[in-house]
């Protein structure tokens, strides 16, 4: 059974007029008649009958129309899904913290676009818990999180185990106060870590004697850095983010002889997306370049 014959029948069944059906389909009326006759011969029953100048469906015609409508509705849905897939395939959405979006991804994206200039990139800045939720809901294609995420249907790739947090203070405050005075008198500004490192962070705070009533928390490492640079308080921040400031003595590290907080960074992606060539190319670039970008 040819789809074009079935489509011609569906149109004729809707209009109950072969001349109007031919006009709508941009066919000649003999073509419409011939296709309907061919379909009737294949089915073995007439599909239309006439009374005077009016055309009606036979009982068999009603059955064929019911299934033809279902069939072409399914085909229309298939085409819509394919078009949506084509649109989504032209863009990759990456979710990560503000620091990663600002400092890590620009050089990686530049390399990616050299290979795939027709692909759009959308960077979404959010915390690790929101990254995970977006991967689960298929809102994001690739996510970067602190820690790891193990779930059926999601692939977790560790891209860094070297990132550590350092306790820093501005040059101004460092020159005026002892470590004890800094920890007791000034706010402690820390990065909001949601996930497996939260307990590690809380233990560090307790061991150092930092007063919880003076803790200021931010989901942005950039905001933590800015607050410390402006002498608001003492900050716990990624060492990679303040390397230049430490080297130039704009910031000073406070050494407490405590076990450092080391943050594992992972890439997460829905496993079924690993078959996409451009996505895999981007993942390889992230793996190759992540620990060289500071």
TrEMBL record:
Cross-referenced Gene3D superfamilies: 3.40.190.290, Winged helix-like DNA-binding domain superfamily/Winged helix DNA-binding domain
UniProt-recorded Gene Ontology molecular function terms: DNA-binding transcription factor activity; transcription cis-regulatory region binding
Ranges for domain HTH lysR-type: 1-58
Entry annotated with the keyword Transcription: yes
InterPro entries per UniProt: LysR_HTH_N, LysR_subst-bd, WH-like_DNA-bd_sf, WH_DNA-bd_sf
Short name of any one Pfam family annotated for the protein: LysR_substrate
Alphabetical list of PROSITE patterns matching this protein: HTH_LYSR (PS50931)
The keyword Transcription regulation appears for this protein: yes
Family: Belongs to the LysR transcriptional regulatory family.
Protein name per UniProt: LysR family transcriptional regulator
């Amino acid at each position: 059974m040819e789809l074009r014959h079935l489509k011609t029948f569906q149109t004729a069944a809707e209009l109950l007029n072969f001349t109007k059906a031919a006009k709508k389909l941009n066919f000649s009326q003999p073509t419409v008649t011939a296709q309907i006759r061919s379909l009737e011969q294949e089915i073995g029953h007439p599909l239309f009958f006439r009374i005077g100048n009016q055309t009606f469906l036979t009982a068999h015609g009603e059955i064929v129309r019911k299934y033809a409508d279902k069939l072409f509705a399914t085909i229309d849905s298939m085409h819509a899904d394919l078009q949506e897939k084509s649109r989504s395939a032209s863009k990759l959405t990456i979710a990560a913290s503000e620091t990663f979006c600002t400092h890590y991804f620009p050089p990686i994206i530049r390399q990616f676009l050299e290979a795939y200039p027709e692909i759009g990139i959308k960077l979404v800045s959010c915390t690790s818990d929101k990254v995970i939720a977006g991967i689960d809901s298929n809102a994001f294609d690739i996510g970067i999180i602190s820690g790891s995420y193990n779930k059926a249907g999601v692939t977790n790739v560790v891209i860094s185990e070297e990132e550590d947090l350092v306790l820093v203070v501005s040059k101004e405050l460092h020159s005026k106060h002892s470590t004890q005075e800094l920890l007791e008198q000034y706010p402690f500004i820390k990065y909001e870590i949601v996930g497996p490192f939260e307990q590690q962070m809380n233990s560090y705070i307790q061991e150092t004697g930092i007063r919880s009533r003076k803790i200021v928390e931010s989901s942005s490492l950039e905001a933590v850095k800015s607050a410390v640079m402006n002498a608001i308080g003492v900050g716990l921040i990624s060492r990679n983010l303040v390397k230049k400031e430490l080297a130039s003595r704009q910031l000073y590290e406070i050494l407490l002889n405590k076990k450092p907080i080391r943050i594992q960074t992972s890439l997460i992606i829905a496993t079924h997306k690993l078959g996409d060539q451009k996505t895999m190319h981007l993942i390889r670039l992230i793996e190759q370049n992540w620990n060289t970008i500071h």
